């Protein structure tokens, strides 16, 4: 970015252009639903595994260690996944829908290890979308507006993540162990639907839009 030295130009430089504001507003809405979903999980998952299966800190620590190690692998195949699905938006939506299905199934696992495998798979599918979503934001926003657009886009996600724990905890205390998972899955499914609605026609500069054959 080239920083303007004139005060008036600097103030004008801080304002996002109208097309950028429209794109950022869409990102803010989609990220808000994702933030709410994250809030319903987060530390609540630890409490859920303990309440549901009676496992201790050692088993839960092993599960989270496995999940963190497993997230290293998807980054090596992200580029191929984007090519396979035919673009960044298609890849993000496909991975998000798949992760929602797996997440919704986690509470119905009969034993801890099955629930753990499903949860790790969900984490892996979710993590695969992170670099793609970040690069997509940088790709569709003009260079001199990227830092502000990224900050504004992520703000609703941070705010939404604070809402979930305040409501998910009482749900588990009331015996509604499944509800936080289903709410999170539903919100992330809504996130995928919004992402597809808002951005399926906004391709990255390096991507060639897929044309639908006629006749």
Structure, explained:
By secondary structure, the chain is mainly α. The protein is built from ten helices and no strands. Helix 5 crosses helix 6. The termini are far apart.
Outline:
The chain has 215 residues and is mainly alpha-helical.
Major sheet attributes: none
Coarse morphology: globular
**Strand/helix succession:** HHHHHHHHHH
How much is the radius of gyration in Å?
20 Å
For the secondary structure, the number of strands is 0
Portion of residues in beta strands equals under 5%
Rounded average pLDDT: 86
Helix percentage range: over 70%
Poorly predicted parts? none
Calculate the terminal CA-CA distance, rounded to whole Å. Answer: 46 Å
- Which structural class do you get from the secondary structure elements? mainly alpha
| Helix run count | 10
């Amino acid at each position: 970015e080239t920083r303007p030295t004139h005060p008036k130009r600097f103030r004008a430089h801080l304002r996002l252009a109208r097309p950028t504001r429209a794109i950022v507003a869409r990102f803010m809405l989609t990220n808000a639903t994702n933030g709410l979903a994250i809030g319903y999980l987060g530390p609540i998952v630890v409490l859920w595994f303990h309440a549901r299966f009676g496992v201790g800190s050692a088993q839960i620590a092993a599960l989270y260690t496995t999940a963190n190690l497993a997230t290293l692998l998807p980054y090596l195949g992200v580029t191929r996944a984007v090519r396979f699905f035919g673009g960044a938006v298609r890849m993000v939506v496909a991975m998000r829908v798949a992760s929602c299905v797996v997440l919704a199934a986690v509470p119905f696992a009969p034993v801890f290890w099955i629930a753990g495998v499903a949860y790790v798979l969900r984490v892996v599918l979710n993590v695969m979308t992170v670099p793609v979503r970040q690069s997509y934001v940088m790709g569709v926003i003009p260079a001199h507006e990227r830092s502000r657009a990224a900050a504004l886009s992520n703000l609703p996600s941070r705010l939404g993540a604070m809402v979930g724990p305040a409501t998910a905890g009482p749900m588990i205390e009331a015996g509604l162990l499944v509800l936080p998972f289903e709410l999170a899955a539903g919100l992330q499914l809504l996130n995928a639907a919004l992402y597809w609605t808002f951005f399926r026609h906004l391709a990255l500069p390096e991507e060639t839009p897929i044309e639908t054959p006629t006749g």
